[in-house]
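MODEL INPUT / OUTPUT PAIR
PAIR INDEX: 1
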Amino acid sequence: MSIEIVLVEPEIPQNTGNIARTCVATGIKLHLVEPLGFLITEKAVKRAGLDYWFDTDITIWKNIDEFMQKNAGKAMFYATTKADKTYASIEYPDNCMVLFGKETKGLPESMLEAHKERCIRIPMLYDTRSLNLSNSVAIITYEYLRQKNFDGMEEASSYTINL
């Protein structure tokens, strides 16, 4: 039972590093679909992912066609600012994937049109263009985990802070 995050042609290494860290902290798989706007070995990706980068369960795909062909039949949702449904208004099935587009353009319009019933959005004020990609991934990831009662997640910190 898990969600998997798919970044289609991500452009900003710091976002991808932050998302990798979220994936490690939640035990979920990350997919990167090329072309990427950076090299995986770049210092910025490693710095943003800190010591978590090499612990990430990650698959890199050559292009969106390869990804879609190999993952045909899996439940997929498409994050976009143009959806009617919100990320919190749907019930996520076990073992689903959420696709996020590149920071400057989002997912291809043709993909959104072909899967309109599976498009989801995060509510924002009307004249706001979009949220940061790593924030969007975290919001939707934690909604999935909340719906699954945070199964397998640590409920309390193992240390105490005295205030």
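PAIR INDEX: 2
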Amino acid sequence: MAYATAAELKFELQADNDTFDTFDDLYDTLVTEASEAIDQYCRRTFVVPGSATVRYFFPTIGGDELYGLPDIASESDLVIAHDSANNGLYTTTLTAATDYVAYTNPLGMITNLVSVNGFGLRASRRPPYKVTARFGWPSVPGPVHRACIILARRYFTRKDSPSGVLGFGDLGAVKLSVVDPDVQALLGSYRDISRLIG
């Protein structure tokens, strides 16, 4: 999923000539590539899930939380099941408030799942918890949308400057910066710092 549309990019690049369609396929590719780059930079995805999917997790060393839990768009469809018999069947369904607490942010997203009595230690190499949830964001944040367009525009410009040189001025070559400062500013608060090491 792209965080902006090809039509939005086209409007910004050629608002005065929107019937010119030579680059339409390229615009579609660029917003997709820009979105993938944003995911990599932020170490998270802003995809809006259409339905719940399943992922498997180990508890943290202390057993208080599930290790590496990604963003969950809402509490809708959330189900946590435990492989209590260690046979891969995940037959024990956990109950909210009794077994765990789901912490949410002002957007209604689940940011953490904390056990009431401890998730327990791993008994094998098989993840002991299966989480069914709407992994992702409830909507694409405005700054992420704008960053996608800026980055896609930058990629479009790059086709005319394969060496990174935009042109020459009084002080010599004018080069593209490594990371667009506007993109950095827009995405700064959305980076998952816990995943930046390694």
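PAIR 2 NOTE: Confidence is low (pLDDT under 50) at residues 163-169, 171-176.
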